[in-house]
Amino acid sequence: MKISQAIAYANQKLQQVGIKSFYLESRILLKHSINKPLEYLLAAADLELSNTELTIFLNAIERRLKLEPIAYIVGYKEFYGYKFAVDNKVLIPRADTEVLIDATLTLMDSKTSCRILDLGTGSGCIIITLLLQIPLTTATAIDISIDAIKIATINAEIHNVLHRLKLIHGDWFNNIAPQKFDLIVSNPPYIADHETSIMTPETILHEPTLALFAENDGYSSYNTIAEVAKHFLAPGGKLLLEVGYSQAEQVIKIFTLAGGYNLYQTYQDLAGHTRVICFN
Q1: 138 strand-pairing partners
Q2: Is residue 61 classed exposed, middle or buried when 0-12, 13-18 and 19+ CB atoms within 10 A define those classes?
Q3: Architecture of the structural domain at 77-279
Q4: Domain ranges of the chain
């Protein structure tokens, strides 16, 4: 099968299952399968794929036809300009979460020396990005999933920050020795069980439910963090949380009632929703 024929085949198959970006995705999957840049696909449209290349490509298409996210198929996702390894044990980094990075960087600069704690690190994309953006920073990151810790370790090694990052397997603040952090960040699970109707099939079928859903209508993670985070914040320290598009008011209420926190700033996503809340 020629490259042009492979792309045409993938276009047809992906379009049949309702994938709107079939034109782009077929090329991404072929690029990944033959380990060539996108430009090569156009320049070499009449070249025949080897049997091995074709087998890899057809397998990738079959996985996508089952609505497996393309990031899991190719094994990585770009976040804040960096490439992060991902698999179905960790949440795929979202553009909305880049608001958390932007918000943090408004509070810090590249010459800042501070200690950061990342709660529920997943792939490690948040804390590793912050370590790359703020070179003098050291950090601790925790996740309840040992598989997530393994992926975060791989990403820390890829980006050469493992020597500045302590990764801990544990549930929220469990297993973290009493200490103070200048900054605590988290993108916790915040989706309520009844919200599945507004989620994409790719997410529901393939992304880890532990990283997506929270009890108490999506607020249980915030309740837990509110109870404990203040005991780990250094004087003058700040806590930054990603929240769901309609959750800001309730999350602010949770932390206000918990005591020990003051609302410092809110940050909006591109749609104008409050996406990150900062407390001090």
Answers
A1: 115
A2: buried
A3: 3-Layer(aba) Sandwich (3.40)
A4: 3-66, 77-279
How is residue 45 written in tokens? 């449209």
CA dihedral for 168, 202, 125, 241, sign (positive or negative): negative
DSSP state string for 137-192? -EEEEEES-HHHHHHHHHHHHHTT-GGGEEEEESSTTTTPPS--EEEEEE----B-
The dihedral built from the CA positions of residue 86, 90, 95 and 99, taken in this order, carries a sign that is: negative
pLDDT reading at 228 higher than 90: yes
- Rounded Cα gap, residues 125 and 164, in angstroms: 15
Please identify which residue in the block is written with the tokens 């009890």. Answer: 215
Rg (CA), the chain: 21
Instruction: Read off the pLDDT band of 197 (50, 70, 90).
Output: confident
pTM, two decimals, is 0.92
* 29 sits in which H/E element: helix 22-34
Per-residue pLDDT, 233: 97
Which residue in the block uniquely carries the two structure tokens 């800001």? Answer: 248
Contact between 191 and 200 under an 8 Å Cβ cutoff? The reply is: no
Query: pLDDT tens-digit profile of 249-259?
Result: 999 999 999 99
The CA-atom distances, in angstroms, between 54 and each of 2, 3, 79, 237, 280 are 9, 9, 29, 54, 55
Question: Closest Cα partner for 199 from 212, 189, 210, 186?
Answer: 212
- What pLDDT shows up at residue 259? 94
